[in-house]
Amino acid sequence: MYKGKARAYTNIALIKYWGKKDAQLILPMNNSLSLTLDAFYTETSVTFSPEYTQDTFTLDNDKQDEKATAKVSRFLDLARKKAGISYYANVESQNFVPTAAGLASSASGLAALAKACNDALQLGLSDKELSQLARRGSGSACRSIFGGFVEWEKGYSDDTSFAQVIPSDAWENELAMIFILINDQKKDVSSRDGMQRTVETSSFYDAWLDAAATDLQTAKQAIAKKDFAALGEVTEANGLKMHATTLAATPPFTYWSPESLRAMNCVRTIRQAGLPCYFTMDAGPNVKVLCQKKDVPAILDKLKQEFSPEQLTSASAGKGAVSLEMEVSK
Hints:
This protein has helices at residues 66-83, 105-120, 127-135, 191-201, 205-225, 228-247, 258-272, 296-303, and strands spanning 2-15, 20-22, 27-28, 32-49, 56-59, 62-63, 88-96, 149-153, 162-165, 175-180, 277-280, 287-292, 312-316, 322-328. By secondary structure, the protein is α+β, with helices and mostly antiparallel strands. It has two domains: 2-170, Ribosomal Protein S5, domain 2 (2-Layer Sandwich), CATH 3.30.230; 171-316, GHMP kinase, C-terminal domain (Alpha-Beta Plaits).
């Protein structure tokens, strides 16, 4: 019997990943850049045993259906192949983040599972190799292996697509992100389906790829110079461009809700009043606000005039995936 348990934190992309050039290997169409945060995370344990007759997957104390378990099994097959074993496994995962609501629960979940498998099976993977493995479960999971600012190199093969830390002299510790939780329910169009529809049908997609490459360089320069305004501006602009591609898809769709628009306008109003802050959104209605840690109390006070305290959560920079326990018995 082989057991491992790990925790991984969610990451929020400042420069978005949107579109795959290889769906099986999960190779992205463009590089992306994220900030790992400490507020939301997933803890996952995995047990491989010769006594099990099938893979089982429990999420937030609910046994998952065949479709969800099959996805986990495909990922477990990658770990089993590396270890040279065929044991079935039991996976138990607890999300301290709403699932499938645009808060990157798949990133933290698959990063935690990758780390737990590495520990349980004593694979001895480097962080780079662990990032490559996590990517095969969920693209953005490769970034949650690391803390702070992280760039996912798109690559052109399984071995060349991985995430790595962007040196920043710990500048990320001066930054924060406030989450405005508009809706924590499961979204109508999944990230996977929305991404594929956009790549295949959006007339804006080629322009998005060109802009994303330029935005990435702008963001990296801003991090190198510790220029918060420049980083915030490109973060906000890049997120808007990504969402514009969905409106030009066939059929068109959007992850925005009326409350999302209200939140974005609220952030603009706060910024115009002299508090620097910038919004971004992933594939869901919730709005994230990039700001400086010193400004969090003042920005929260402003947001509480429009949203309930239960809708607001602040986060600081988080660390990479960590092992919680490991046990190997035969």
